[in-house]
Design a protein that fits this description.
2 copies of one chain form a homodimer.
Chain A (H helix, E strand, L loop, with lengths): L3 E5 L6 E6 L17 E7 L3 H11 L4 E7 L8 H14 L6 E6 L1 H13 L5 E6 L2 H7 L4 E6 L2 E8 L5 E4 L8 H18 L1 H15 L3 H21 L14 H11 L6 H16 L3 H13 L11 H7 L13 E6 L2 E5 L4 H10 L3
Parallel strand pairs in A: 2-9, 3-4, 3-5, 5-6
Antiparallel strand pairs in A: 1-2, 7-8, 10-11
Helix pairs in contact in A: 2-3, 4-5, 4-7, 5-6, 5-7, 5-9, 6-7, 8-9, 8-11, 9-10
């Protein structure tokens, strides 16, 4: 397959998303996106043995250093960012240095935030190696780390210079992570593209069995959808919020369960079903959504959590000043809106269904 | 005096600089620049007893919390930013929260960076209370903290919503800090405005004796100059570098001496003289610069430091990858250029003069 390229249109901050198989270790001109002569590849101990050498080969004559983080969301902290910054300082890295994030969403988020903060911002490149990162977190410039009291509370909007997606990396991805990535793919269809949603219904088995053409198309279409939404509203002042469909519930599930119990994509899957229930869409469309999520091997219901705990995790307790909860709801498959008006009683019933 | 207003023209990120006497505790509508209902004033233990109440009064019906940092550059660290972020999390602060920096450059830099990082960026307001912060650091959106191995290595460009300068705060400023602030005022004249430089020569005694009209004009003109340069080049890709006139030498002096020995403005004063020597300007103009700096009570020569130490502190040692030193030099008073071409032998002689 020839690599496909999508542009994230953000004026001076525009950048390409290149999707292809065998990019790592091939002849793709990644070095052409490195402004200076100096690079730091940030990866983790799981990904490094598989793909680090391939990235280094693409960087040719550049001076390349690398740092291997431990693997896991629990390391997505300010302290880990500090380790990367220390390394940059020790190298005498200057404003022309480029950071390269090689790994999943955690590596991308951490690396992007380190790039945003070093000398008030240096270039970075996303080379995502999980489906979730390829269809979601590597695109759009959201970077950051967790605070002990909440996810992604510390961060920056910082756009990469390029997102380089080698679909061959998915051959090494565990099944459960592949499925978790599909949750965000399904989300992209559900929120803005009924036709793509239909394509997913026709091709979900091909995706699960890792048909390369099917995966490449699903990634391409997801990136196109996300790129278009981000181009309209880079800093989430409005429309970008639709990308959070299923996430208000999903984040609450993750928080109540303790992170790491369910994968993010699994929580979002159950969250989408809950959001669809709150949406009052056609029963037939609701059932199509549930069926597709189920066929992808993802949960269509939350685990058992008390209603009060879910409400608190959604930030609906009294401590929060002036906070008004925004829900992303479906009008129909492919049509979404953001609202602060919803049926309180229905919300409690939906949460109660999880309170078994 | 009626408040004066200057606009920093940065498209959607444009903001006013308002300069007046008695703004704090007066009837200025600062609350009008606070988007939500929630504010956190960040100040330090020196400034709080003098001006915190005045800011709180201006915020009227908003929910106002405050945090008092210890006073000093040594607290301009990631750890201090962490304290502010923890407070925001504990308050359940959301994206509509506004941070207000009340103090000098250290408070402004720390607060701005905390605002840049919290939830990927919340609003902040600069209320500078030192001359240095009023004429320089509060304008232009540079925020950040120090790394143990270098100043301002960790930070962000994050523009405030307004810079509110109450010139009455200068009545409480120690003499030495007032003079240090004048170094940056003189710099603004020297780099782009020969007429303002002449005005400073005529009015330097009025400034030192804190004539309110003279101070207000010097602040206004400095802010106008800085605002124009920043509007042209927000992220220092080019022209903005001229604001660093005297700073390559000045930073090296601060680093070699240990921070806190000389004030930043004092180091910049001596640094401007060194940069002017390297510039090969008219002797008469060179002498005018030295004389004005001297009349402002500022040093015109660096303390005794070995040439090798100064060179290393300027990043001219071999460890640094691909680094090319840029100097901001004078063509004449009011005309500046940035260059990587300079007379090496002359540079060593200039540094040698400090190596007594």
């Amino acid at each position: 397959m020839k690599p496909r390229s999508i542009t994230v249109d953000l004026g001076q901050r525009s950048y390409p998303i290149v999707i292809g198989n065998g990019l790592l270790g091939g002849d793709f001109d990644l070095a052409g996106y490195v402004r200076g002569s100096d690079c730091l590849v940030v990866t983790n101990e799981t990904v490094a043995p598989l793909f680090l050498q391939g990235v280094i080969e693409l960087l040719g004559t550049k001076a390349v250093d690398s740092i291997e983080l431990p693997d896991g969301e629990e390391f997505k902290t300010v302290e880990t960012v500090g380790r990367i910054l220390d390394r940059l300082v020790d190298r005498g890295a200057n404003r022309d240095t480029t950071l390269i994030a090689l790994g999943g969403g955690v590596v991308g988020d951490i690396t992007g935030f380190a790039a945003a903060c070093y000398m008030r911002g240096v270039d970075f490149i996303q080379a995502p190696t999980t489906l979730l990162a390829q269809v979601d977190s590597s695109v759009g410039g959201k970077t950051g780390v967790n605070h002990p009291k909440g996810k992604n509370l510390i961060g920056a909007f910082h756009q990469p210079k390029i997102v380089m997606i080698d679909t061959d990396t998915l051959k090494r991805l565990p099944d459960r992570e592949l499925k978790a990535g599909l949750a965000e793919v399904i989300k992209h269809g559900a929120i803005v593209d009924a036709e793509f949603f239909g394509w997913l219904e026709d091709n979900i088995e091909a995706l699960i069995t890792r048909d390369p053409e099917a995966l490449a198309y699903a990634i391409q279409r997801s990136c196109e959808i996300k790129a278009a939404v981000v181009a309209e509203d880079e800093r989430e002042a409005g429309r970008r919020a639709i990308l959070n469909f299923g996430h208000t519930f999903g984040h609450a599930i993750e928080r109540c369960q303790g992170y790491g119990e369910w994968l993010h994509g699994e929580a979002v899957a159950a969250g989408m079903v809950m959001a669809a229930k709150l949406s009052n869409i056609d029963l037939a469309e609701f059932e199509r959504l549930c069926r597709l999520i189920g066929r992808a091997g993802l949960p269509i219901a939350a685990p058992s959590i008390a209603v009060a705990d879910m409400l608190a995790a959604m930030g609906m307790d009294k401590k929060v000043h002036g906070k008004q909860l925004h829900f992303v709801l479906l009008e129909s498959l492919g049509k979404t809106f953001v609202t602060t008006e919803y049926d309180d009683a229905l919300l409690e019933r939906i949460l109660g269904a999880a309170d078994r």
